[in-house]
Structure formats: structure tokens, C-alpha cells
User: Fold this.
Amino acid sequence: QVQLVESGGGLVQAGGSLRLSCAASGRTFSTYTMGWFRQAPGKERDFVAAISWAGGLLYYANSVKGRFTISREQGRNTVYLQMNSLKPEDTAVYYCHGRKIVNVEGAYVDFWGQGTQVTVSS
Assistant:
């Protein structure tokens, strides 16, 4: 089992910054990617950013490119999301996501954290 716990959310004014953390615990071996999704009230859950665990290949949604940075700290099984130049439209619950390879054929399973609230005021 893998558990993902997010932290770092809060209330910030537009133009400000926050850094989210996601710590993975349990059977964290064979982690493939970790990343972040977000969901605003009444909206679908949208992709934000991801990083491949071994190679560090980065993926970003167009809406956050140039403002958000995803990084990993492999020794602590932790992924971060540095969010700069925050906008009110960034307000959402941010969910940590992990993908783990479970067999030699490359099958995988996804894990989700419970979410952390980010609110950006005007």
C-alpha cells in the first residue's frame, strides 16, 4: 500500500506564492510518476503537473507553465509544487497523485492523497 499526504495549502493573495508538499509512505518502491491535480468546486479534476520519478521528466498544464514548478526529493519520497504568481483561478483543492509499477509487464496502479485547499484571493 502507498499513502500520499499533502501539505502546504492555505490562503494567499493574488500574486503570492505557496509550496505544496506530498509525502509518500508505505510500499513506495517502483514509483513511476508523481504529480498534482486540482479540482475547483463544481469542476472536473484537472491535471496540473507531474514528474517521472527516476528520470525527472517534467509535465505541466499550459495554464501553469512558467508559474509552477514541480520537483522531487527521492530520498524522502516527497514531491513538491512551487506555485508562484498565483491567480484567483488557481483556487482549488490540490491532490497529490502517484503511479506505481506493480509487475514486470509494466502494469500500474494509481494513488491519491486526500487533498489540500489552496485559496487565492483577489
